[in-house]
Amino acid sequence: MNRVVCPGSFDPITFGHLDIIERASKLFDEVVIAVLVNQTKSSLFTVQERIEMIQEVTSRFTNVKVDSWSGLLVDYCVEKEIPVIVKGLRAVTDFDYELQMSQINFQLKGIETLFMSTAPAHSFLSSSLVKEIASYDGDVSSYIPEPLAERLRQRLALVKSTRIN
Ligand code: PNS
Whole-angstrom Cα distance, residue 31 to residue 82? Predict the structure, then answer.
């Protein structure tokens, strides 16, 4: 069975991520979406909330599962016997970082990374930009599924109401 993992912070999952996941689900027997910690980013949603949101918008894919892991991605791959990571590449700006990650993941545990090019319609899209747009009450309905947009609006309102300055 060909199993692959699509890792990410997914805070929140976007149409760009979903496009890669859907395309990967047609190429491989099983796709595991793994919510991991990216130490360079702070998160708006808890890991459990991100899992719930991903499950909600991927339930139509019969061979897609959602999981989480708090350690190294390669240790997850070894533990779950998943030999391949699938990642989307948006533009050349992603390349240096993704290449470095793929090389270190191969060097650490022999885990391969396959890159899929993001659909041009999503090449500018990132969870960070979506959060920024939503924080200024901008319309994010083209970037994330509507139920998630509503959750994002509610979370940002809560954050705003608890902010001191
Ligand atoms: O969606 P992101 O934030 O670009 O995803 C990055 C992620 C979470 C896949 C990456 O930070 C990651 O693999 N984190 C787990 C820890 C790890 O394995 N780090 C890389 C090797 S040092």
Answer: 10
